[in-house]
Amino acid sequence: MDLEKEYNSQKVEEKWLNLWKDEMYYFDWNSNKPHYIIDTPPPYPTGSFHIGNTLNWCYIDFIARYKRMKGFEVMFPQGWDCHGLPTEVKVEEKYGISKNDVPRKKFRELCVAFTEENIEKMRDTMRRMGFSVDWSKEYITMYPEYYSKTQLSFVRMYNEGLIYKSYHPVIHCPRCQTTIALAEIEYKSGKTTLNYIKFDDDVVIATTRPELIPACVAIAVHPSDSRYKRLIGKKVKIPTTEYGAEVIEDEEVDPEFGTGIVMICTFGDRQDVKWWKKHNLELRIVLDNNGLLNDKAGKYKGLTIREARERILEDLKAENRVLKQETIDHNVGVCWRCKTPIEIIVEEQWFVKVERDKILDAAREIKWIPSHMLSRLESWVEGMEWDWVVSRQRIFATPIPVWYCKKCGRIKVAKEEWLPVDPTKDKPLEPCECGSKEFVGEDDVLDTWMDSSITSLIISGWPNLKEYPTSLRPQGHDIIRTWAFYTILRSVALVNQIPWHEIVINGMVLGEDGRKMSKSLGNIIQPDEVIEKYGADALRQWAASGVVGSDVIFAWKEVIAASRFQQKFWSILRFTMLHIKDYEFNDEDVKYLRDADKWILSKLNRLIKEVDEHMENYRFGDALKAIRSFAWYEYADNYLEIVKNRLYAGDDSEKKAAKYVLYKTMDVLCRLIAPFTPFLAEECWSRFKEGSVHLQSFPEVNEGLIDEEAEKKGEIVKEIVVIVRRFKHDRGLALNAPLKNVLLHLPYEIDVRDISGAINAKVEVLDKLPDVKLRIKKLKPKFGIIGPMFRDKTKEVINLVNNLNENDKVRFIEKGEIEISLNEQKYKIKSEWFDVEMEKVVEGKAIESLEIGDITLFIEV
After folding, report:
1. CATH code: domain of residue 811
2. Is residue 351 part of a domain?
3. Among the three residues 283, 305, 339, which one is the final residue of a domain in this structure?
4. Do residues 851 and 731 make contact, with C-beta atoms less than 8 angstroms apart?
5. Are both 664 and 684 inside the same structural domain?
6. Is residue 552 part of a domain?
7. Closest CA relative to residue 680, chosen from 726, 723, 631, 718
């Protein structure tokens, strides 16, 4: 059956989505093949599968498909990180409620339903993209079978002394009404007001947060600042309050900022926390969990932060204490989710110990790709100021498996065999040590990173590990300080091993304008939009064009170019199938190979080697670029054009060699392109061979076919054909137009039969360069001079000159003039009235000469 002329990506992709079976990609622990286990990111199912997800999962799928072809038993699982603030916020928005408006159970049910709906949508997009996921290894963190393992990890780490509860400063989001981890703070730049406030005649403090004046517990200056040495130890009255504060010295005070005097509050920022701990200062918290000032703020109790700032400034101005105000650039920490400015409050929370040295040692055992990404994790860990707070004041998350005895207050942690539990409704199965059976369940829940930080363990069978560490973690650079950091921490804490051997980092996807995608900029692209227009394979090729570790600009032109390549690849298949439909592949046919055949087979085997090396080093863009360049330019535009005449007009032995090459090249190209364009590769393979291309091995290099001499000769054949075709094009000739004769002089011995067929001319190889002479081809008149002189006789004069024999023309040019007779009248004609057009001649025949390095062609014209 003849192949359709046009490649229809939509039709082909739909066809294979219906035919492919999930079982193709199932991982078998009992397989004798070497295992390759990927710790796939579990995305938040709060919306659609976006273009950033697409980039990352394309990288993962390239790796998974390549590794399968290289003989590995590959696990490419898929999980969903369901719990946490993002889902709660979406549910609150969808139903116009807050988490406290409905019973706890009902709110969780709404979150589960919302999440399941989004998982289905995202799963559909992933299937449409052709990702070779092992869906039998799917995990969903909101289901008991998963979060029971999260609880188990909590219990084991608690019993090892790695989790504790403590009264400690924590980062708090007033909008979300929950604590957040240090890693979840984002920083927003903007303008703010720096207020110069007079505390007394000696002390003027510049602050951006006058609302925290009631929380001021000390005033600090730099010990080397001579302006204020005399103030150290002085007690200063805090304006608008009944409090006082002592002036202390500390080397971390910046003498250049403001007045060089700072107030230490509990707490304005993390620096305040450091000073509070270091100097053992009083703890005076003036903000509650809702972001309102409490009774320790005196008359400002009940005000919001903004209201308190305005009221306190009004009062200070009334007392003439605001000496100056200026606008400055300022970075403010905000909640990663709702972008509300964060506050630091003191609460009793659950913490995980951060053992920095162990984490850094483990991180350095892992191979980071690109390598410089390790420094991001190192900088984060080395700069951490306190442990990881893991308790959250939300609902949709893994319950903390803990109760508190009503009688003695002891903490009761669940036994492993009790899990999963929900302490808000379940009771302990044994009494407290004091004998009491009355408990209050913990209603805080765990940070969602407590779920997702054990994915490497979960897919490896933990707590009964089958194989560990895993092979690879692919993830974005934006979550190095969260997902990568927490996973290393938990793996070291729970099994004292690194979680993966390698970690590959991808960048973000930027809009075509080079800016981060956002609704406000109108530069968001959804993968479904691209798939509808050009198909999944074209989008996958765009993804491959990026560089691991770098941000990638989405460009429609790249997708369109990818689509065109697919059509070119299809055209190659059509040409191949036209000529090999009756061909039985036989390795014996290599004996018929010509220079052009040996050239392209050598290049093909070099391509296999090059692509293999690129894939091993995660250089997907380089691998795909090499495949496309070879297929389009070397193979289709050159080799196929060179052998076309042989395939149509050659004898059987001549055809066999070309058919051998067509068969072999199509086989290799289908397999090389399969990780990048699974639909195209499968469709081409199905028209060419039986079975699935995705169950084939990666092409092996035939070192015997890599031949530098053959490549040199093949390049000569190619260059000769290219330059002759260009010659035809420049003269308005059809590319298949016949030429009289072509004489070829070159310092190598090559087979010219394919050249002859490709340029449609008899080709003769010369032993030595011929005697090339110049002769006058034509004398072109300068009508601006001749016309006014001879008027109606102009044409006759020109004809007489051009009809001169060769010798007379030469004398005319040499002497500068010639006398002619016209109607019995003599005229002297000047040679300067003509432009001379010369031509080259070999053995009396006019020729054009072309040169390629040390090769010369003479084309008879």
Report:
1. 3.30.720.200
2. no
3. 339
4. no
5. yes
6. no
7. 631
Range 312-338 average pLDDT: 89
**Is residue 167 predicted with pLDDT exceeding 90?**
no
Q: Tell me, rounded to whole angstroms, the distance of Cα 780 from its chain centroid.
A: 62
Q: What is the pLDDT of residues 198-229, one digit of tens each?
A: 999 889 999 999 999 999 999 999 999 999 99
The pair of three-digit structure tokens given for residue 23, joined into one six-digit string = 């079982």
**pLDDT one-digit tens code per residue, 240-296:** 999 999 999 999 999 999 999 999 999 888 899 899 989 999 999 998 878 899 999
Q: Considering only CA atoms, which of 554, 374, 553, 394 is closest in space to residue 480?
A: 374
Q: What is the DSSP letter of 466?
A: S
262-299 core/surface letters (b: 16 or more CB in 10 A; e: else): bbbbbbbbbebbbbbeebebeebbbbbbebbbbebbee
Pair (294, 321) in one structural domain: yes
List for the chain the helix, strand, coil content (%; round to 5).
45, 20, 35
What 378-383 contacts at long range (C-beta under 8 Å, 24+ apart), as own/partner pairs, is 380/183, 380/480, 380/481, 380/485, 381/354, 381/356, 381/485, 382/356
437's CB contacts (< 8 A; 6+ apart) are: 427, 431
Q: Max CA-CA distance within the chain?
A: 144
CB burial class (10 A; 0-12, 13-18, 19+) of residue 615?
Answer: buried
Look up the domain containing 198 and give its range: 186-339
CA atoms within 13 A on the CB side of 208: 13
Q: What is the DSSP string of 775-803?
A: EEEEEEE-HHHHHHHHGGGHHHHHHHHHT
CATH number for the domain including 275? 3.90.740.10
Chain centroid offset of residue 241 CA: 54
Alpha carbon 608 to chain centroid distance?
A: 24
Structure tokens at 203: 């002390």
Number of structural domains, the chain? 4
Task: Report the b/e string of 657-683 with b at 16+ CB within 10 A.
Answer: bbbbbbbbbbbbbbbbbbbbbbbbbbb
Is 734 part of a structural domain of the chain?
A: yes
Residues 754 and 797 in one domain: no
Burial of 113 (0-12, 13-18, 19+ CB in 10 A): exposed
For residues 473 and 380, give the distance between their C-alpha atoms in angstroms, rounded to a whole number.
19
